[in-house]
Write a structure and sequence with these properties.
This protein has 345 residues and is of the alpha/beta class. It is 54% helix and 8% strand. The chain contains 15 helices and five strands. The protein has helices spanning 13-22, 32-36, 40-55, 63-79, 99-117, 138-149, 159-172, 191-206, 226-235, 249-264, 275-278, 280-287, 291-308, 315-320, 325-338, and strands at residues 88-93, 127-131, 177-181, 210-216, 236-241. Strands 2-3-4-1-5 form a five-stranded parallel sheet, sandwiched between helices. It is globular and about 65 Å long. The relative contact order is 0.12.
């Protein structure tokens, strides 16, 4: 199924292929003299390209991204010789800490390597990316795998039929890495959730691939408790995606490196190089160190700067952006904590 713009979602092989083929943005600023002389039509097209550039701003190799891609690559290599009991990874953490970015970057890097190794022209699907539907059942999860692979699902097919078809096709297509996102939708306290967990385990046994899970605070959802949880805990290493800190010199250095990378990707005509670094402390306080909130703040401010003609990122422009509730609540708590207290005489 395609969206209204004709694009496929990432949870289909067509959408994933488009993501892999997309590559980094090549948008560059035209010389100021040429920019000022652009016709209205040329300016509209030029600004459109810059809107798209900032909408999908560069993916930064954060510590979480680096850890996930390194660990994932190592496990794929180790699991190739395993008949069963293959090891996997679970990426967990709060919203906005970059979990989905980390697992999709792992999938991207693996697919690019796998395709470089491929010499034949036969069909090949090295990476599968699916999400756990809300209130998932085992059949619904199997259908997500089938949808990614483009398998037709006759209405008469039951869970076992869909599962067998998925395992057979992915085995033939040489799938080596399976990414299952939104794992917080799997509730082991319910019968449907427990059966879906069993389905995941069965798929991991049938499909000779490394499985990587990502979800919101999965430990709080009881993923590692009970007999099923203990099986998961015994096979999967957990990587915590956490907000960036700002208390130590090392943490500030990591934050500044992140801002410097984003700063270099900005395409505004009056942007002062290093402008984001000048507001490093403010940006951390405003976003609570959440990379998702930071990315949104920078991207929306850049788009707004094109729309209003200022063509630069300023603190006033950053202040105009309304962020997600979690970031705004954290920023309000910070302002309250540092507000001078009035002396009582």
């Amino acid at each position: 199924m395609t969206g209204v713009d004709g694009h496929f979602p990432l949870t289909t092989k067509e959408g994933w292929a488009a993501f892999v083929a997309r590559g980094p943005s090549a948008v560059q600023l035209v010389p100021d003299r040429d920019w000022r002389r652009q016709s209205p039509a040329d300016r509209e097209e030029y600004d459109r390209s810059r809107f798209e550039h900032h909408a999908r701003l560069i993916v930064v190799a954060t510590p979480t991204v680096r850890q996930v891609t390194h660990t994932g690559r190592r496990l794929v290599l180790l699991n190739r010789g395993q008949i069963s009991a293959r090891r996997g990874i679970i990426i967990t953490g709060a919203a906005g800490t970059g979990k989905t970015t980390a697992v999709t970057q792992l999938g991207l890097s693996h697919e690019l390597r796998a395709r470089r190794r491929r010499t034949g022209g036969e069909p090949f699907l090295p990476v599968v990316y699916v999400t756990v539907p809300p209130a998932a059942t085992a059949k619904m999860l199997a259908a997500e795998f089938a949808r990614f692979a483009g398998l037709p699902i006759p209405s008469a097919f039951n869970q076992a039929s869909i599962t067998n078809a998925v395992c057979d096709v992915l085995g033939k297509l040489g799938t080596e890495l399976v990414i299952v996102d939104e794992l917080q939708n799997l509730n082991l306290a319910t019968r449907a959730g427990a059966e879906t967990s069993d389905q995941l385990k069965y798929l991991s046994e049938r499909i000779p691939a490394t499985f990587v899970y990502a979800g919101l605070d999965v430990e709080d959802n009881g993923l590692f408790t009970g007999p099923r949880g203990k099986q998961i805990a015994g096979r999967f290493a957990a990587i915590e995606a956490a907000p960036f800190g700002y208390a130590t010199a090392g943490q500030r250095q990591d934050w500044h490196a992140l801002l410097a990378t984003l700063d270099e990707a900005i395409r505004l005509h009056r942007h002062k190089p290093g402008a984001l670094l000048e507001h490093a402390a403010y940006l951390h306080q405003r976003t609570a160190g959440m990379i998702g909130s930071l990315s949104h703040l920078v991207r929306e401010t850049a788009v707004d700067a094109i729309l209003d003609g200022t063509e630069k990122i300023t603190k006033a422009g950053l202040e105009r952006v309304t962020l997600d509730r979690a970031a705004e609540t954290a920023a309000a708590r910070h302002r309250e904590a540092v507000r001078p207290r009035r002396k009582v005489s």
